[in-house]
Structures are given as C-alpha cells and as structure tokens.
C-alpha cells in the first residue's frame, strides 16, 4: 500500500481479536458503574474551542486537535464536555451521577500503550460535596478492576488543598501556585534536582526545601495550619475507604493530576508495570462547572484509560473471534439444513458462522481452524434428515452426534 494511504500518526486500527478485549473490558466497567447507580450519557466529539480552552490548563492548549475554521476542536477529555452539558441542560436531580465511555483526542507524542485517539470510561458525581463521593468512586474503580481481572496496582491519593497549603506555608505567591503544583507533580518522572531547577526557573526559590516537604507522612501536614482543610478531607476519605474494604491505597503528597481544573482530593491508580503507568485517575473539580453555568457546582469523577488496561489484558487474551461454532455443509444439497440449524443455535445465544463462499468440506474446516474457534458442526445427509449435528472439538479432535439443544449446552459450558 502506498505510504500516503497509511493511517495517521498516533492512530490505530483495532482488529477483531483486540476489539473483543475492548468490548469485554467496556462491558465490565459499564456493569460496575450501573451497579453503583450511574446513568449513561453521550457527548459530542466536537466542541467549541472556547469550551475546550476555558479551563484545560496551559499544557492542554497545544494538544487540542483544532478544526480549520478556528472555532471548533476535538474534545481532549470527557469532563469539560460534561461541565458544558450540565450547564446547558437544567433540571437534573442532585446528585447527578453519570457515566460516559467514548473516544477523546490529544495532539501529543504517541508512546507505548498511549495514542492520540483513545477511549476513556468516566464516572462523575455532580452536586454533592464531601469525601463520601470520592470514596464511592474509588471503591467503584476497585470493583471494576477486580471484575476485569487487573491485579498489581496501587491507588495513590492526595489533595490539591493540601499542596496549596504547603506552598503557602513556604511563601509561594498565589499567582505561582498552579505552576508550582504542576512542577511538583513531576517528581515521579524527574529527579529532585531537575524539579528544583524548574521551580527556580519559574521564580520559586527554596525548591529543595519545598520538595522535601512533599515527601512527608500525613502527620507532618497535620502540624501545618495552612493544610488543615486538606488534611481533614483526606482523613475522612481514608476512614470511608476502610468501610468499603479498600486497602490498596497510599497517601502520595506530590501527585496533583495535570489538568488545571482540580481543586480538592485527587487520585491515580498506577499499574505495577512501569510501561503502562496510570490506568485510572480523577479528582474533585468544584469550580469547573461554574465557568459554564455561572455558579459553582461541586463535582468529582474518575476516568479509566481503557487503552492502557486493554494493553495489559491483550497479553492474556483467550479468544480471536466471538464465533462459537462454524457449521460445515458436506455437500451443496445440505446448505439449507445448515441455515436452519444455524438459526436454531442463534436463538439459543450461540454465535454461528456458515459457509458463504461455496467451499468444500476440507476448506470449510480449515477456515474454522484459522478463526481459532473450538467447535465445528458438520451437516451431512444424515444430519440434514435427523436434525442432528456432528459436533467436532477442534482442540481435541473428538466428535459426537448431538441434537441442537445438546450442542448449545456443550458450547455454553466450554466458554468458561
């Protein structure tokens, strides 16, 4: 294929065996969101640039895919669109609990497990204050990861209020607070000397002392009056997480989340696989909706990086196809019986393929093997007249003559 027809940089095609992983992953997350009482919404991919730029933060402005008209762009996350949606549609019962699983786009450098087009699975609570919301969302995320089968992760928790309190304690001016927080947030990626240098370059002195202050336990911040509100929020959250049975968390005072709209508690769920990094994250953004609605509305959410989790799951994927069985007609005169049998199986929830190319029996069996299906059902003259299927297990080579009901039970039992 000529290079000019290749897919755009940072984009990718998702082929069937990978899409099966995605569909299962999305279904599991959606089931857990619904179990916690979140309702689905859908939001447009394209927003006005004024909407996207209103509170994305300095770093996100260069990552927006902009339309040629200079007025529109592709959304870079689902939260800003949610804020606009809430402001534009009055009358929601509070708290408003919604989930949204859709694609977003960022014009950033592609890397392992991360693309310019990617899928997010968000859940948000609007209209409610208090750590009860954060605790529910973190518990919800824990349950979703358990349902998916993801192990080896840690939930890192912090508070933007606490970070601001520390910086205020060290005399950082209010106008430099956001810049300082964004720089401190890089401590997991850069050395302390590099972070201190960047603080200095942004006009913030005593960087070494400030960095040391973001490596303390919670008891240190309890002794700083400027951190009182942040500490109280965190202690309440940690207590509630105990009620939910969430234990796989760690207080990490240097994490801030990169986007400029977070105002309170923030959290990241990090995979033990360093190449995957953060697989879910979120936090409180009590002032974002006010930008669009004209009055502040308390809000908090969490977002799964579906692509990164899928990268993890694809390593142990079991299926190349959703097809349960390929029905093989021995001769052309058996094709009608093949169709009728396929329809009977489909009504019982079995995914069936039949020959569409007039191939002989051997080529049909080869096709079934190439798909990776476990079962082939052979329909010859005897099967056509009796309504039975010669079921062949392609993994073991065993075969038996069974009726449609027996075949359906066998396949369902083999799904695992």
The strand order across the widest sheet is 1-4-5-10-9-8-6-7
What name does CATH use for the topology of the largest domain? BirA Bifunctional Protein, domain 2
Name of the CATH architecture of the largest domain: 2-Layer Sandwich
| Continuous helix count | 17
Low-confidence stretches: none
In round numbers, the mean pLDDT is 92
Distance from first to last alpha carbon: 40 Å
> Quaternary state, please?
single chain
Structural class: alpha/beta
Q: How many separate domains make up the residues?
A: 2
Helix content: 40-55%
The CATH class of the largest domain is identified as Alpha Beta
- Tell me, briefly, the overall form: elongated
Q: What's the CATH superfamily of the largest domain, by name?
A: Bira Bifunctional Protein, Domain 2
Molecular structure report:
This protein has 416 residues and is an alpha/beta fold. It has two domains: 3-314, 2-Layer Sandwich (BirA Bifunctional Protein, domain 2), CATH 3.30.930; 325-414, Anticodon-binding domain (Rossmann fold), CATH 3.40.50.800. The protein is built from 17 helices and 15 strands. The strands form three sheets. It has an eight-stranded mixed beta sheet with strand order 1-4-5-10-9-8-6-7. A hairpin with a 5-residue loop joins strand 14 and strand 15 (399-402). Helix 1 (16-35) packs antiparallel against helix 5, helix 6 (160-169) runs antiparallel to helix 11 (228-244) and helix 8 crosses helix 9 (207-213). It is elongated, with a radius of gyration of 27 Å. 38% of the residues are buried.
